[in-house]
Amino acid sequence: MSEVTLKGITKSYGGHLAIPPLDLEIPKGKFVTLLGPSGCGKTTTLRIIAGLEQPSSGELSLGGRTVYSGETGHFVPPEKRGLGFIFQSYALWPNMKVDRNITLALSQAGRPKAEISERLAEALQKVQLQGCGERFPSELSGGQQQRVAVARLIAARNAILLMDEPLSNLDAVLRTEMRTELKRLSRDLGATTIYVTHDQVEALTMSDIIVVMKDGVIQQIGSPYEIYHQPANLFVAEFIGDPRVNLLDGELFERDGRSVLRLRETEIVLPYMLAQTAGPVRVAIRPERLTLHDRPTANTLPAEVDVVQPTGSQTILSLSARGTAMTALIPRFVEAWPSRKVWLELDPAGVMVFDPATGGIARPVTTLTRHVDAA
Length: 375
Prior knowledge:
Layout: E1 2-13, E2 16-27, E3 31-35, H1 42-50, E4 57-62, E5 65-69, E6 83-86, H2 98-108, H3 113-126, H4 142-156, E7 160-164, H5 172-189, E8 192-197, H6 200-206, E9 209-214, E10 217-222, H7 224-229, H8 234-239, E11 246-255, E12 258-263, E13 266-269, E14 279-285, E15 290-293, E16 300-310, E17 315-321, E18 324-330, E19 341-346, E20 352-354
Parallel strand pairs: 3-8, 3-9, 6-7, 7-8
Antiparallel strand pairs: 1-2, 1-4, 4-5, 9-10, 11-12, 11-14, 12-13, 14-20, 15-19, 16-17, 16-19, 17-18
């Protein structure tokens, strides 16, 4: 069942079409992330769902109730949509104490005082701000202010939660902690959550479903696994992943019912037959699908180590393969590589092939599938 449905939604600013006709269905109870670079339309889409922006055309439904129709002119204002919203700037009232910031909407809705007190205590406990109810926002750290914004959502118990880059102002350690808190919040409330970010790490770690956008157009909708391992096009492959995917120019041809890639003097036999049988291609492979050797073997390219970046549990190697910059990920701590000359083995099962003209992925004749539990 879809909790949020957008049909043919567009948004124009003067003569600029920011959102071309957009269709999107968000299932009930799922954590869905709108992901893309700045200017891709993700925040505009979120604000349209919230009612903070009015679309130019189309139809929007929340929980089966139409809240906007371009055909009839019907528009439900944001305060009547029953949504919870966390802004990037927290949006706390500076002249109100923490407890008032959390319960203001409940008071205005006429909730009984006993219920308000109960919800306030529960919200403060969940975000670990017990004893901070009498403080003003200016007396709190940035992380604590973010927790107040989360507590406001908990107290409201909305069925649909909207979050617009709520972690971008936090330091790295607190950002990691809050990712866990927000995902737990969505799960505990059973809420449908729509989260906007340009940070693909946030998207991969928090989401049930990721919607990748570019220039107002949806590029791919899928699980974190599908977005990372089965990108629909070259844009998605390049945008997702840290370190970024490696890109090479190659030539595709067929041999004995198999697709074969020629990368300079190296030939790689793929474990399947592609629908595209021959011609120039763009090849992508994730850094972790590369293996380093000290001598040439099958499926290898000669390379030279340029920079070694140990990160603790793994090491990022920057290399040059005949003038092409590449990155390899080693699952251990390495301070220095003993030899600058290495050979990179490309895992054939990890190779992704794209059409250089359209950017679309070359699909196997027999589609490879991955079992996903219904849960």
